[in-house]
Structure prediction request, 109 residues.
Amino acid sequence: MILQVALALLVAGAHADDNGRAVTPPMGWRSWNYYQCNINQGIMEATFTALADRSRTVDGVPTSLADLGYTDAGLDDCWQLCGQYGPQNYTYHNASGWPQVAPTKFRSM
Prediction:
C-alpha cells in the first residue's frame, strides 16, 4: 500500500514544460573522452569545424552534426599551465586569479 501511494505521488508530481527546451538530452563532444591530456588548439579547432561541416546529407539535405543537435564542444582538462604563481603559490592561476593557459598547447589564448 505504501509503495502504491509513493508511486502515485511520484507520477502525479512529474511535470514537463512544453516550451521546446530539453526535447533531447544535451548532445556534444568532450575532449577527455578521446584525447585525455593529448589535447591542443589544432584538435579543438578541427572539432569545431567537424561539428559545423555539412558534407554529410540526411534525406538528401546537407546536414552538420550541429544541425542534428550536437552543438557543444568542451575542453575538459590539460589546457592549463601548471606551476606556482603569486605569493600564495597558486597552481593554475596567476597572482590576480586568472587561469594560466599552456601556450605550447593553445597558442591563441
About this structure: The chain has a mean pLDDT of 85. The helical segments are 2-13, 41-52.
